[in-house]
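Query structure, 307 tokens:
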């Protein structure tokens, strides 16, 4: 059984952006490359599970899940460009700009963004007008100049900023946390969740988003490209924010432990109100497991080097 057969979201990722016969060949190749390397699909699965917990229609939930994954994938394509992080590998394959050139990569990312907006509006079309307006404002706040774009600009200009915990987390709040807020809060929002539950989900998104960024920073410092499936050791060479570089590996691990404990307390409160959120506890454990894998592989590498 293929991965696409096993996971409906994988099939939806590859098929939710139709490629017309008239499409210019180079752009087609770039888009086919992207749609055939979908990554782990953890985010869209969270969206689908959240929508199910709030009884949001399944077809609409799938559209919303893929839309948010398209936004995320487009951000990675831009992030990998030579004018940004100048990466060469992503999701175990050559970056789009490496394989097909910068112009097709940029146009492909824009195609994903355009399609993502269309899918979002389809997904929320049956919602009350007030919820539609709220969703529109939330998406703009976290993808626009107050969110992802500002975080990316801070990242690119990090060399002129203080290299400390506050600055690195400010960048992470703009980039990583913005996308995780969309993943956790937006599905509940369009489902009409109570305000208190939206607040709890937002707090979890911040705790987990910053934790996820710490794991990613540790991978950049402690692991190689063969382990991560993407270009590593870039933050230090490009003078980009990395909490493990700014405050040290041990302090970064302590910070992550504190963030996860804060998230745990918030998740407990959410599950008291809505037990169907139990799947989020499993997701939280994957963060802890990933941190352990990163640190254990680093220790193994140090032992082998000493031998």
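Result returned for the query:
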């Amino acid at each position: 059984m293929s991965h696409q057969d096993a996971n409906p979201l994988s099939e939806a990722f590859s098929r939710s952006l139709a490629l017309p016969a008239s499409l210019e060949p180079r752009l087609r190749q770039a888009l086919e490359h992207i749609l055939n390397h979908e990554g782990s699909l953890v985010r869209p699965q969270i969206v689908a599970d959240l929508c199910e917990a709030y009884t949001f229609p399944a077809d609409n939930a799938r559209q919303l899940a893929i839309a948010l994954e398209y936004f995320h994938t487009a951000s990675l394509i831009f992030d990998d460009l030579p004018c940004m992080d100048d990466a060469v590998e992503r999701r175990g394959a050559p970056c789009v700009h490496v394989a097909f050139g910068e112009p097709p990569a940029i146009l492909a990312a824009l195609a994903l963004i355009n399609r993502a907006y269309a899918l979002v509006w389809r997904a929320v079309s049956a919602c009350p007008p007030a919820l539609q307006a709220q969703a529109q404002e939330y998406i703009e706040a976290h993808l626009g100049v107050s969110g992802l774009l500002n975080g990316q600009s801070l990242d690119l200009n990090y060399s002129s900023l203080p290299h400390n915990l506050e600055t690195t987390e400010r960048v992470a709040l703009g980039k990583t946390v913005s996308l995780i807020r969309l993943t956790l809060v937006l599905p509940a929002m369009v489902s009409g969740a109570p305000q208190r539950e939206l607040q709890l989900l937002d707090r979890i998104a911040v705790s987990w988003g910053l934790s996820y960024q710490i794991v990613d920073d540790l991978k950049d410092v402690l692991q190689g490209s063969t382990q991560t499936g993407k270009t590593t050791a870039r933050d230090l060479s490009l003078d980009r924010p990395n909490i493990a570089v700014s405050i040290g590996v041990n302090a970064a691990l302590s910070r992550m432990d504190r963030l996860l404990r804060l998230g745990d307390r918030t998740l407990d409160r959410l599950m008291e109100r809505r037990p169907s959120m139990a799947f989020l506890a499993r997701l939280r454990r994957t963060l802890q497991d990933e941190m352990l894998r990163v640190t254990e592989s680093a220790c193994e590498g140090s032992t082998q080097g000493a031998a």
